[in-house]
Every structure is written in structure tokens, then in C-alpha cells.
Amino acid sequence: MNVTGIIAEYNPFHNGHAFHIEETRKNTDADYCIAVISGDFVQRGAPALLNKYDRAKMALENGIDLIIELPVITATSSAENFAQGGVCLLNALGVVSQISFGAEANTASDVDLLGRLADFFAFEPPIFQEYLDQALKSGCSFPAARAKAALTCLQQAKHHSMDSQTLAQFEQLLASPNNILAIEYMKAIRRHNCKLTPSVVTRTGAGYHDADTDTALASASALRKFIFQDTSDQKNNFDTLNQMLTRTVPDSVRELLLTAYESHAFLQEDDFSDLLYYELQRQLLHPTASDADTTRSDLTQRIANKLESFTCWSEFVSDLKTKNQTYTAISRYLLHALLGIDGELLNAAKTYYYAPYARILGFRKDASPLLKELQAHSQIPLLRKIVKERQNLTPEQQKLLDLDVYAANLYNRILFKKSGIQRKNEYREPLIIL
After folding, report:
1. 8 A C-beta contact, residue 111 and residue 171
2. Taking the mean position of all CA atoms in its chain, how far away is CA 21?
3. 38 near 77, Cβ under 8 Å?
4. Cα 105 vs. chain centroid, distance in angstroms?
5. pLDDT at position 298
6. Which of 370, 345, 351, 271 is nearest to 68 (CA)?
7. Binding-site annotation, residues
8. How far is residue 379's CA from residue 339's CA, in Å, rounded to a whole number?
9. Which among 293, 327, 257, 320 is positioned nearest to 58, based on CA atoms?
10. Which GO molecular function terms does the record list (predicted)?
11. Residues with Cβ < 8 Å from 353, sequence gap 6 or more?
12. What is the spatial distance between Cα 161 and Cα 158, in angstroms, rounded to a whole number?
């Protein structure tokens, strides 16, 4: 059985994702494709546009055979831990031989250089940290500082025989968010000796941050921005949205998104503003032992100083942003505060390499042979009915699963407040079976 894994958010699913799945099947000759997806909260420190079951359904209708949820503590972590969790989860299933991901890599040379960068980051030389600290002190954001420090190390390493052209290629590759994540996937494979062969699909169409929706291959961020634009004229906006979605997403996804639009079922950070404000106030009144990390301590102090002027989540993040800290990193920090993700939970996640179990969200009926193989070979618990299976987990796994349940309940409560849609409790929510 030839099984390929994909790590994704599908937030929302669009033509680019459909293209990636199609190319993945072609490149790997896969019998089955498993997607590990973020749940109700995503890596940029925000709620998903739609709940995880709707997004799982989108993927199952468009080429994926089985969907597994990435635990919320992993899905909302840094790129390194996000990639580590996804890769280790796929590897621990015991049946996945390849992992497919997109990258801005147009040639075999580019793919080779991504591999060389992955080797470098998997086993960073001691001098790297010194260069990283220097770049951070100069005012660079962490991603920019990391790239600068890596390029300096690579340029100085004699065995790399770095010429100016290769250096320029490295610099260009490190400038892309998708390439950074691709490098993290490859790094995790090397660092944890995973039995996964990388398969790179060249990204086409709009870039990661491109807001253009006048294309068949618009980015997920462009779709979200379009959806959350001014909605004062509901009828005209519905027609305009329909036209845009007709270009950018598969028909089944368009129907689901239009239904969600009419039901006011799309969520974003600012829908959680009041909950975040109350939680930050509570933590200021009842502080707990915090990390010794200087950056985090500085951020905590800025939060305390600026909380009085809090208006909403997005504006508060903008107020807290500095040269060294990105909007996304701060938003993730606030999301962790809201969800109660503390050092104890993070240590529990690290114990399992951010892959404590594999919770199945849905599958296609014709993938039953795949399910049998998973049950026979998985090295981590397979969860289908958590009301029965929770008791078989270790105390640490139970805490991480309880966090997933809490996050979903919080998401569903805000969804109900905004749309009137009431979803079942996580212990009673059925799997998506197509």
C-alpha cells in the first residue's frame, strides 16, 4: 500500500490545494492520501475561518482519503514545532512512506538547496546562535534574523563552496514563507530519522501574502481578506463573493462557503476580543510563574502596560508589535494565553514530539483498507470515539486531548453567539464519512 501524507490548514480549501493533491497523487503514485490538518485554531494565532469538520469535509470531497486533526497545541505553535508535530505524527502512523508539500522551488537545484538548508538547520553549528543574537539586536525580526544568521554561516563554511549565485538562491529561498515551512518539514525528517520521503510540488499562482483574488489560484489569506471585507450590502456582497469563489475554489467548497457566509458562520480574531481581554485581566490579577525567556517577559510587560487601551484583538496585536516580534508571533502568544496553554502543557507536548495521538476527523468509505492498516501499524493511539478512548491515554495525553476539546468548545460557543449555529459537544460529534 502506497500512502502519502500532507500537512495543511485548508483555511479555506481552494484550487491551489486541489492542484497540490492532484500533483501529489501523480508524483507519488499514491493509493491513499492522508491529510493532517489544524483544528479550530491555526498557526498564525487565530481561529480558523470555518470549524474543523467543515474543512475536513471540503478536503474529503476533493481528493483526500482520511483526515487527522493536528492537536491544537501543535497547530498553534511556531513553524518548527508545527512541522515537527505534523511530520512525527505522519511517521508514527506506520503506513505513510512519503510526505508532500508545496514550495517556491522551480528546479531540481532549488529542491536540492532546500535539502541543504534543512541539513543546516537540523544540526546548526554553535556559531549560528551568536550570529542570530547579533541580527536580533540589530532590529531584525526573528525570521529575518534566522535567515541572515544562516546565510552568514553557510557563506563561511568552506565545504559548501558558496559562490555568489548559490548564495543568492539560498537568500531567495529563505524569503518565502512556504519554503521556510518546507525546510522545517525536511529538517524534522532528518532530526527525528523519519521514514518519510519528501515530495515537493512547485507552488503556482498567487503568493502566500498576495491579496489578489482575480485568479484561479488565489491564496487562502486573499480569500479570507475578501470574505471579511465590508458586508453592509449583503445582497451585492453575496453576488460578488459568489463570482470570486467560482474562480478560486472547487464547486463543493463554494457551496459550503456561501452557506456559511449567509449564516454568519465565519470567525476571525476579533470575534474573540472580549474573551481575550477578560483572560488577560485575570492573568494580570493572578499571575503564574512565567518563563525566564526575556522576549516573553518583555511582551508580558507590554501587555500589562497597554491593556487599559485594549479595543480588539487585531488592534492590540498591532499595538504590541515591535521590530523583533512579528504580528503572527504575538497573536500566537495571546491565543495561548486565551486557551490556557502553559509550560506544563508545552512540556507534555514536547515529550511526544508534538504528536501525542492521531485523532481521526473523517474518511472516505472506500478508504477502509487504509483504516485497517492504521489500526495494525500505528505507533500512537488512534482516536475515533474519544468518549471511549480517552481513558486509555496517559495522563499527559489526556491533558492534551482535553485542551483540544476545550479549544473546540470555545470556538463553538463564539460560533453560536455570532451565527446561532449550535454544534454538538466534541464527545458526541460524529466523524465525517463520505
Report:
1. no
2. 17
3. no
4. 20
5. 86
6. 370
7. 7-20, 102, 178, 203
8. 28
9. 257
10. ATP binding; ligase activity, forming carbon-nitrogen bonds; tRNA binding
11. 84, 85, 88, 192
12. 6
359 sits in which H/E element = strand 358-363
Cα–Cα distance, 82 to 233 (Å, whole number): 39
DSSP state of 216: T
- What would the pLDDT profile of 195-219 be if each residue is shown by its tens digit? 999 999 998 765 555 678 888 999 9
- Tell me 366's DSSP state: G
- State whether the Cα torsion 57-223-355-391 is positive or negative: negative
| Kind of pairing between the strands at 66-70 and 98-103 | unpaired
Average pLDDT, the chain: 92
From the CB of residue 411, how many other CB atoms can be counted at a distance below 10 Å?
A: 22
Annotated binding site for ATP: 7-20, 102, 178, 203
Task: Tell me the residue type at 295.
Answer: T
Write the CB contacts of 181 (distance below 8 Å, at least 6 apart in sequence). Answer: 79, 82, 83, 101
Amino acid identity, residue 315? Answer: E
Q: Which amino acid is at 108?
A: A
Nearest to 147 by CA among 131, 159, 161: 131
Q: Which residue type, as a one-letter code, is found at position 364?
A: R
pLDDT score, position 358: 98
Cell digits for 184? 522545517
Distance of alpha carbon 411 from the chain centroid: 17
pTM: 0.93
Angle between helices 52-60 and 251-262 in degrees, nearest 10: 160
